[in-house]
Amino acid sequence: MAIAVLFRVRIPGVERLGFLPPIYAGINAITAVILVLAIIKIKKGNRKSHERLIKTAIVLSCLFLILYLTYHITSDPIPFGGSGFLKGMYYFILITHILLSAVVVPFVLITFVRGILGDYDRHKKIARITFPLWLYVAVSGVLVYLLISPYY
């Protein structure tokens, strides 16, 4: 809801920051890779490396959000110019990305806190939900950018 409101907010006199979308899409791509590496590390029993990777993914996700919001308060939305199947696919990915990006935040926070506190059984249980949601949000963010980028 807060994000939707921000799409109507513009900072007067600030130039459009059109260089930001490929940067925050890149951050999403790096986050996706880091999440996969974190899963590999924990499956190999390397808890410290897993923890460092997850902390990095959280920092990158926060950086993404800052850049994303900065772009959208300085720029008008770009309409998707495709048609047919591509348009349907774009909007499906976009809508699921937006909805799941809101849903995943509390999951990430709860999963992280449980891991930091050493509540590993409950951490593992919720991580089985959090990981695919978070990975989908990261990957679908990149796909949304790739699909809309020709229209910038």
What does this structure look like?
This protein is mostly helical and 152 residues long. It has one domain (17-151): Four Helix Bundle (Hemerythrin (Met), subunit A). It is built from five helices and no strands. The chain has helices at residues 2-6, 20-43, 47-72, 84-116, 120-148.
In terms of DSSP E residues, the strand content is under 5%
Distance between the terminal alpha carbons, to the nearest Å? Answer: 25 Å
Morphology call: elongated
Secondary-structure-derived class: mainly alpha
Q: Which assembly state applies to the chains in this document?
A: single chain
CATH top level? Answer: Mainly Alpha
The second-level CATH architecture is Up-down Bundle
Question: Would you kindly provide a brief summary of this structure?
Answer:
77% of the residues lie in helices and 0% in strands. It has a single domain (17-151), classed as Four Helix Bundle (Hemerythrin (Met), subunit A), CATH 1.20.120.80.
Topology of helices and strands:
Elements: H1 2-6, H2 20-43, H3 47-72, H4 84-116, H5 120-148
Labels describing this entry:
152 residues, 0% strand, mainly alpha, single chain, Four Helix Bundle (Hemerythrin (Met), subunit A), 5 helices
